[in-house]
Amino acid sequence: MSTQTPAIDIEKLRKVYTRGKEEVTAIQEISLQIPEGKFVSIVGPSGCGKSTFLHIVGGFIPKSTGTVRIRGKEVDKPGPDRGMMFQESALFPWKNVYDNVAWGLEVQGVEKAKRDEIVEHYLKLVHLWDFRNNLPSELSGGMKQRISLARVLAFNPDVLLMDEPFGALDAQTREKMQVELQRIWQESNKSVMFVTHDIDEAVFLSDIVVVFSGRPAVIKEIIEIDFARPRQLDVHKTQEFMDIRNHIWDLLHQEHSKSGEDEF
Amino acid sequence: MKKGWNIIVQYQSLIWIVVAWEIIAFMQVMPERLFPSLGKVVVVAIDLISSGMLMENLPTTLFRVFAGFALAAVVGVPLGLLMSRSAKLNDVMQPMFSLGYPIPRVALYPILVFILGLGSASKVSLIFIECLFPIVLNTYYGATRVGKIYLWAGQNMGASSSQIFWRILLPATMPTIFTGLKIALPLAFIIAVLTEMIGSTVGMGYLLSYMSASLMQEKVLACVLLITLVGYLLNLLLQVIQRKYVFWQ
């Protein structure tokens, strides 16, 4: 594969909803390339359409115009080339942890012995092999999201799409999960598109932070973050981190004042 | 000891009824012919079992109940699920089920007898129709409320539409499917007994009307007691199955 082909290539993507007779533009026009192996976060004011954007890339909702290419191949339906992680756990409550992780492999027809090997590998990677026989309802929110990550990684997608995966977790668990995600991401070497409203989370995790404007969404700025990896939590305390953080905060708050009260 | 006491407290209404019944019977408020003591009723019920009368009639009734109920489940569950997935199918089917739900469908029985005769066919058909309503409506209702996130996760993992239908939508809807089944099963039993009372030569409903003809109240009550017991056991069976299949709730 050519190293020039971006992992995710989005060209002139536009999304217009029809609500009754009214047309609402959610995404004005977005073009974005995500290079192989990079961790890219998307931040934007709430309601700006960043989740919609990710769901379109995932193929779950249709776009109005534009193209989405994954490693050069155009896509418009969901598929296992893009592993999607949601804010709430999408684990099947009627399956135990092991069967949840094995599910994708099973429907794709991966044979049992190979399946067992892969499931064991990823459950050990997220340090939850001991919980393989538990039901999702018996696990904490953070554990559920680690299982979700293992489930997504197990079917070996080309890219990971993550829709505020730690949004429902408490602050401490969230920080632990960020460190965990960095470790797992570095081992798996996948390209990631990560949507969040948490600026600290975006700066801590990402190689590139993409700042969206308020609705209708356009890209406001693309910021490269080059702290050495693996990053420790105390990177938060460095002046450079705070400068980037404040800069993004300013960008988002210009948007808040512009878009008015309806965003609350 | 504590547990035994809890059970007594839980079923106390039943105990009060029995006590009140026995007091009325003992004081002979009504003639014994019309109001026999429950002890006598139980003796007659045991006699019905040991004489083989129960086993002559119960299997036919159970067959009708299970045939109609199973048919309704096999048709109703996929139909309800499909209606949740296809707006077109729902547009066609929904009015039929919503409008048909409140009308007394037993009124169809004479028509079914006219077409299918007085045997099991007309009875199983009516049980089927009666059970279809709660099963379809509950399945549909439950399926429309399955989080789209589960279906998306399935699509994301490369599952085919039929895999998503049978392996995500069906199990995710299972809790409300059981709500429908639990409404349908007693209905099936009621309709079986009722139609057997109207016209039959075998079955629990037939046994009941036969006993009524004898004008002996304890025999009628013994029959009612057995029917109640069977109905209770049927529900218990469904609960056991539910616990096995909806264990995650």
Automatic annotation (TrEMBL), chain A:
Protein name: ABC transporter ATP-binding protein
CDD domains found in the cross-reference section: ABC_NrtD_SsuB_transporters (cd03293)
Keywords attached to this entry: ATP-binding, Nucleotide-binding, Transport
Domain of life: Bacteria
Start and end residues of each ABC transporter domain: 8-239
Keyword Transport found: yes
GO function term, MF aspect, one: ATP hydrolysis activity
Lineage: Bacteria, Bacillati, Bacillota, Bacilli, Bacillales
Annotated coiled-coil segments of the chain: none
